């Protein structure tokens, strides 16, 4: 196994156990030349100037943000996900309140709702009967008309 560490040996080679040895990292990078020598001919690297950080506006804004953070006045820019989650939570609370309000209906309201449901069911049944009659074959309709006329004639003769 090729590793970048080597064991430290304190004594003779025979007495050392590989399990007991300490591992230290080997330095791969070479030291730069300009650190050791004070040669004036060498050009020393300098850190590049960041124009954004050097601008007066940026410095003022950074100072203001630091002051606000020390005071505990953080900016109110929340991430979009947090805003969405808070909105969902608010909507859920409102929905729960509406459901609780519906559960607290009076006896009169409950009775009126029951009657309304019964009326709607009766209307649906009437509509189904009318649709069945409209969709019935022609001979069934004619037979029904003949029965009605026969009953009307019988009633007229009795009176």
From TrEMBL:
Lineage at the top is:
Eukaryota, Metazoa, Chordata, Craniata, Vertebrata
Q: What are the Basic and acidic residues biased-composition ranges? A: 80-107
Q: Which branch of life, at top level?
A: Eukaryota
Per the UniProt record, the source organism is Microcebus murinus
Question: Which Pfam families would you find in this protein's record?
Answer: DUF1151
Give the UniProt keywords, A-Z. Coiled coil
Give the span(s) annotated as Disordered.
1-21, 69-107, 128-159
Cite the InterPro entries for this sequence.
FAM107
Q: What protein name is recorded for this chain? A: Family with sequence similarity 107 member B
Q: Which PANTHER family match?
A: DOWN REGULATED IN RENAL CARCINOMA 1/TU3A, PROTEIN FAM107B
**Is this entry keyworded Lipid metabolism?**
no
